[in-house]
Write a structure and sequence with these properties.
single chain; mainly alpha; 2 strands
């Protein structure tokens, strides 16, 4: 299936109300997986087992979404690298760098010394898996299928933004032993929302989920290199 306009593709996929409810079900399942991950972190299991959760949980998320869409041909739009691919990658790199520098600036304003850390091969592999999982689930699946409940693109992307933001809390809640929305400071909340809307826009414009993956990867890679020391 060739998809040139992701908005039209979204409407095509979201004709059934059941699609929207299924999307919310996928989100609920993902939240349960993240709560499980937090519970494992609080356990006394060996360190290698705890570290493996950084890969196991994203892989389970990918397996979940692949199982859900196994009967939908072209479920995430165009897989080939189309003419807009270089533009999407370039925009992703620029936006990612800008957000990373802004994040580094926020650390500096908070009075912390900022250092630059090169990612390791292992952390890079984990980053790729996590980014693919989040893009397939949130931009590629949830946002498009929510059109079955709300026939409005802005409502769908806003609801998905809230879901994407909430997915960053469960592990922190379990580790802290309380449901506390201050577990993420305001700066990180803003950047998470900006990342969602940026990835959503690139996916819609390119019709290719890999364009959104590229933007997300650039953001996580660059922002992860700036750490307070």
């Amino acid at each position: 299936m060739s998809v040139k306009n992701c908005d039209a593709y979204q409407k095509n996929l979201g004709q059934r109300t059941g699609d929207g409810w299924c999307a919310l079900g996928v989100f609920a399942t993902l939240m349960a997986l993240l709560l499980m991950q937090g519970a494992v972190y609080r356990s006394t299991l060996p360190t290698p087992v705890l570290a493996s959760m950084n890969i196991v949980v994203p892989m389970l998320g990918i397996a979940l979404i692949l199982a859900v869409v196994r009967y939908e041909r072209g479920a995430w739009g165009e897989w080939r690298l189309g003419a807009r691919w270089p533009l999407a990658v370039g925009c992703g790199a620029i936006v990612g760098l800008a957000l990373a520098l802004a994040l580094a600036g926020s650390f500096a304003l908070a009075g912390a010394h900022v250092g630059l850390v090169a990612p390791s091969l292992a952390s890079g592999a984990i980053l790729i898996i996590c980014v693919i999982q989040e893009e397939l689930i949130f931009r590629g699946y949830i946002e498009t299928r929510l059109y079955g409940l709300w026939h409005n693109g802005w409502i769908c992307t806003t609801v998905t933004a809230v879901c994407f933001l909430l997915s960053h809390y469960p592990v922190r809640w379990v580790m802290q032993g309380a449901v506390d929305f201050s577990a993420l400071d305001g700066t990180h909340v803003v950047f998470i929302l900006l990342l969602h809307f940026g990835c959503s826009a690139v996916y819609r414009r390119s019709g290719c989920i890999w364009a959104a993956v590229a933007l997300h990867f650039c953001y996580n890679l660059l922002s992860g290199m700036f750490v307070p020391i």
